[in-house]
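Structure first, sequence second, as always.
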């Protein structure tokens, strides 16, 4: 058995490289044709019911506006009811035929059950679930004193999506609906000061990739990995000296997300150029780690020592 493992370790990588080099061009061509087909037959969401968590600001707010422009009915979820009412009024003006507001905390399993039931009882159906709610904190792990303070990041970013999805699946299955889940490029970029946030988003990607395999064609799942987007969260990030990244407008990001969900894409990264960073991590992780450490950790340690 040890010999077999050694043999595969030597023979398999070059074999796969040869196969990859031969099949890459036709695979990309077929993938492009499939993309054109999905674009042509993109889902019309007019009159369909969309539930959006974390809809009181940022990406969630603008995703609501984009669905409203497509004349979808909306169920908006967040803790700040006053903001939700403002966004609901704006969504109606943009074309949504009906909008309801349900104040809730996604980290509370009973709240998640309630807002899914409230949505289905009101509209009689559920077509899209957008798991957008998320929070973060900015601190080096070494400087963290009370680690329990970071538990809310996993409770909201990961468990909030799980609770919402678990309650929504029976209703989505009836409509052959879709789940849109907001992860982050931080899941694979290992940004310093964001360790717990990065981990929560990596968990989101891993879980929903597994769920997609389990559900197959019954419910579509689009995993979105935004980079730095102009929002309340990115404003805090800029204070953490992350000006290295070019922020994309929230409105453009939201348009891309809704278009991607309606096409039935498996993945979406915005801005699209950040896909290069993923391949850099795969091909030369040392370079990215050196850059992030020198830019965000070493500089801070130097100023602290001085």
């Amino acid at each position: 058995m040890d010999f077999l493992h050694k043999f595969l370790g030597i023979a398999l990588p070059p074999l796969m490289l040869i196969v990859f080099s031969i099949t890459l061009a036709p695979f990309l061509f077929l993938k492009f044709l499939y993309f054109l087909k999905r674009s042509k037959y993109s889902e019309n969401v007019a009159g369909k019911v969309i539930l959006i968590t974390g809809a009181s600001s940022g990406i969630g707010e603008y995703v609501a506006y984009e669905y409203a422009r497509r004349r979808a009915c909306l169920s908006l979820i967040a803790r700040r009811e006053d903001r939700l009412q403002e966004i609901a009024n704006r969504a109606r003006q943009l074309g949504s035929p009906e909008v309801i507001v349900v104040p809730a905390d996604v980290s509370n399993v009973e709240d998640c059950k309630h807002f899914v039931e409230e949505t289905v009882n009101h509209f009689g159906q559920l077509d899209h679930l957008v798991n957008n709610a998320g929070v973060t904190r900015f601190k080096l792990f070494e400087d963290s004193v009370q680690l329990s303070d970071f538990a809310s990041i996993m409770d909201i970013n990961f468990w909030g999506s799980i609770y919402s999805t678990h309650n929504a699946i029976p209703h989505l299955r009836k409509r052959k609906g879709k789940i849109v889940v907001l992860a982050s490029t931080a899941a694979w970029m290992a940004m310093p000061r964001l360790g717990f946030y990065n981990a929560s988003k990596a968990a989101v990607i891993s879980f929903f990739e597994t769920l997609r395999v389990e559900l197959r064609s019954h419910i579509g799942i689009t995993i979105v990995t935004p980079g730095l987007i102009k929002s309340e969260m990115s404003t805090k990030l800029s204070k953490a000296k992350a000006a290295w990244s070019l922020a994309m407008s929230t409105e453009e990001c939201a348009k891309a997300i809704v278009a991607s969900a309606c096409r039935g894409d498996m993945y979406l990264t915005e801005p699209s150029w950040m896909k290069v960073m993923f391949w850099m991590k795969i091909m030369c992780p040392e370079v990215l780690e050196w850059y992030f450490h020198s830019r965000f950790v070493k500089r801070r340690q130097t100023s602290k020592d001085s």
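Margin note: The CA atoms of residues 13 and 19 lie 10 Å apart.
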